[in-house]
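Deviation from plan, reported transparently: NAP complex.
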Amino acid sequence: MSEVLVLGATGTTGSRVAAFLRARGVPVRTASRRPGAHVRFDWARRATYAPALNGVSAVYLLAPVGVPDPVPFVEPFLEEAVRQGVRRVVQLGSSAVPEGAAGLGAVHSLVRAAMPEWAVLRPSWFIQNFTGASLALRELDGEILSATGRSRVAFVDAGDIAAVAGHALTDARSHDTEHVLTGPEALSYDDVAALVTRRHGRPLRHRSVTVAELAAHFAARGLPADYATVLAALDDDLRGGSEGRVTDTVERVTGRSPRAFREVPL
Ligand SMILES: NC(=O)c1ccc[n+]([C@@H]2O[C@H](COP(=O)([O-])OP(=O)(O)OC[C@H]3O[C@@H](n4cnc5c(N)ncnc54)[C@H](OP(=O)(O)O)[C@@H]3O)[C@@H](O)[C@H]2O)c1
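Because the crystal trials were delayed, the predicted structure below was used instead.
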């Protein structure tokens, strides 16, 4: 097999996809805007698309993050991929964004239409949101802020997302489908605060706030105001229970159970 191009290779999922493939002897080409990866790749610089794609057989596609409309970037990238004979693209989407919806949903439609072989991963919220900078973003004086109320989310391990991506990229038969990925159990933010407290050994409580209060908190933490509003509104979407479902996709694709919150190193 020729190389698999991994976009977002320095990020939460891309770094794990690259590690998963390497561990199985698959040749990997990592991409980043920064030095240290195999190729320089920047969605904002179209001249970086063709060299990154040259000679690869498959791509892990992380669309530009935080861009309201990624289509003007992803469309020419996929055209170049097809021109260069790339057969397969596995795109990271989101369980909250169905095919055809604005943003990642529009990318989903593009990938399905453009590629001879494809898969779109639609994970629920990541367990890794409770580590490092992602946790710090929601934390204030020993409390985790959310506007999710008592709703539950089947948080999923980024390592499990990467394992499904690895299979979708390399299985002899292309998956040609979307995969909705969850962890094995749905947890409330109260549950998560208790688990994180135990793990980090410092008390952390969940505080329910309104969407407007959460948006103001995110903005105070330095997020641009419009992005802070969009991010906070996602919490509100959870209140309907949409992320409480548990799917068997990780087990079906990888042959093993998804990892539970308490099993994942934070
Ligand atoms: N967190 C969640 O709960 C959740 C749930 C479902 C879906 N998602 C989706 O997951 C995606 C984020 O994935 P992730 O967590 O794996 O990524 P991440 O950790 O946020 O990292 C972002 C990656 O994108 C790269 N990047 C940023 N700007 C770039 C540019 N202009 N050109 C090329 N690369 C660029 C960065 O690489 P360099 O800086 O090295 O270039 C980095 O590797 C988002 O689309 C989000 O909607 C997240």
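The pocket of NAP is lined by residues 8, 10-14, 32-34, 41-44, 62, 64-65, 92, 94, 123, 125-126, 129 (CB under 6 Å). We consider this an acceptable substitute for the interim report.
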